[in-house]
Amino acid sequence: MFQTKKLLHFISRHCISRNYQVTVVGGASEIGQTVGLLLRTQPAITKLIIFDDLEHTPGVVLDLSHIPSGSALQGVASGNSLEKFWTDSSIILATGGVARSPGTSKETWFNANADFIKTLSSRISKMSPMPFVGIATEPINTLVPMAAEIMKNHGEYDPKKMFGITILDKLKTEALYAAEAEKDPQNCNVPVIGGHSEKTLIPLLSQAEPKCNLDEKRIQEFTSKVRSSDSAILKSKCGWSPSLSVAYGAVAFTKSIIDALDGRTTQIQAYVENNDFGTSYFSGLVTVDQNGVKEMQRYSHLSSYECQLLERSIEQLRKEVLMGKKALELE
What we know:
This protein has 331 residues and is of the alpha/beta class. The protein has helices at 2-14, 30-39, 57-65, 82-86, 106-124, 140-154, 167-181, 216-227, 229-236, 244-261, 304-325, and strands at 20-25, 45-51, 72-76, 91-94, 132-135, 162-165, 192-194, 201-203, 266-273, 281-289, 292-296.
């Protein structure tokens, strides 16, 4: 009997196909459309829900339906009816709001995205148990704490399942590092900590593998290049913000969460609730299992330059987090 139970456990863990429902809120946005495209081909996803208030949402869903896939696809264009469709979602991705574009002021951009997250957070707080939530809508440093505060005050909230999607910070840092070191990016590992903004992101070149002998000047130039990479894209795209790489990061995040849900403990670069530095939230490499975040990777022997960056980043990150935490006071 004992051997039979072990065999059944093995079969349930390894031989039964994974079944997960993913909802993309803001699925008709520029980023959301690319996320939907990439998720449409993921065999572990049995149902993909695309939600958006934009009028062309039905067209986006129709477009995606022409991609051969074993998963079900559903589009939801009415905000009032969303809850009954996403009840069984394992993962909810926030990709909506307004992207930085020519003619859009920073204030308009922030207010629109804050409103999007406020509405979404209130709806998610009514779900029990809470699904895994990944926020890609900018500015992540502020909107993730905002979402958490709203959910705490409106219903269900599990900090272990709330993520700011910052995996792209690590991916692009490794891509740029590989170019600098003339290495294969697939074989490079560069830890990134701090936050998800130009003044809070810290690439830890002292911990990078394989090692590359960069002098202090080149290290500072590289750090500046990584930190200003979004601005460089904004300029090169004539005022339009990054979308393809952001979508790629959101899908990489989703795949890692699915692995965790499937019983495989995994590591994900993410912005999560963490008070190691007194900021309440911090981005880094976190271990995740079926129940959510377990712990964040810690690093020792940072360079003096990295310590200086960390000190300044913490100060800025506290301000950005506090702005999000005050969301309810501003309503």
